[in-house]
Amino acid sequence: MLSHSFSPSPAIELLSRKDVLAVIPLVKNCEPFEAGLIPAGIEEANAQEINEVWTVTEEVSRGKTGECNWSKTSELMCLAIWLSKNDCTTIEAATKNAYAAMLSVLMEAGYPHPFRFWNYLPGINAGQGDEELYKKFCTGRLQAFEHLGYTPDTFPSASALGHHTEGAVFYVFASATKPVHFNNQNQVNAYEYPRQYGISSPSFARATALTLQQSPYLFISGTASIIGHKTVEAGNLERQLHVTMTNIEHLLEHANPDNRTLSTFKVYVRHPHHVQRTKDWLEQRYPGVDAVYTLADICRSDLLVEIECFCR
Ligand code: 3EB
């Protein structure tokens, strides 16, 4: 069993539990600590001390291989790698190297199927046109996947956001067994976005289904107000929320082989003054879904909000 929850207990205390796969403190710092603890630079929107916690029902072992911190069970490995402030000045090469390192550790450890990536970068919207940091990150990521022989049908679900601190972190969940990846028929596949969005398309699926110890799960990628390949409802928060949740509902209906239901939301809001309205909108419509609200930059500068989901 895999569960995702939000806890105010101290991160170190959470990490002392044997069934904890990963603790992600929603704090401003982004730096390696110890295996299983992933400070990612994504802040809780009201500066509350909240940790994301991923728990399993097996005993977890933790360690470090090369630059990668990991924690694992017999079926699942969580791997994290940080880039320094200096690495981020050459984000394309640094991303390629970091992804190549992660994918090879996963392969050697017997978890060859990455199914969910999180990518948190500084200044994600900095730079003009093809020089935008996010676009260079996309090139590095695609080069690593291609170099190691991953084809678009194996691209995992993902989120890619900008934080407001230095350094970057990538972390991934990977499995020993094969997951199933899905796209959204109302959106152009991310890996087929047209040239205007950058030299290299983003390498991710819209949702991924996976069964662990007989329990099926659905991971929904960071989802935003995009229809086809275009951002829609630029400048309007509530309408972006509506389009985003329509995309998520479409995945729940058409990319959900085991009929999973929404368990948690991780919500990324660009502007602090939009946090309360985002909360109100979602709590009114999805009162049963446990949610955490963070401040982050979305990878297209016209997107105001992005939502990812864990379903079980
Ligand atoms: C989008 O749909 C919005 O580059 O890994 C969402 C989820 C987005 C993941 C990624 C980007 C990524 O294109 C942005």
UniProtKB/TrEMBL annotation:
<protein>
    <submittedName>
        <fullName>Dioxygenase</fullName>
    </submittedName>
</protein>
<feature type="domain" description="Chorismatase FkbO/Hyg5-like N-terminal">
    <location>
        <begin position="52"/>
        <end position="174"/>
    </location>
</feature>
<dbReference type="GO" id="GO:0051213">
    <property type="term" value="F:dioxygenase activity"/>
</dbReference>
<keyword id="KW-0560">Oxidoreductase</keyword>
<dbReference type="InterPro" id="IPR049368">
    <property type="entry name" value="FkbO_Hyg5-like_N"/>
</dbReference>
<keyword id="KW-0223">Dioxygenase</keyword>
<dbReference type="InterPro" id="IPR035959">
    <property type="entry name" value="RutC-like_sf"/>
</dbReference>
<dbReference type="Pfam" id="PF21168">
    <property type="entry name" value="FkbO_Hyg5-like_N"/>
</dbReference>
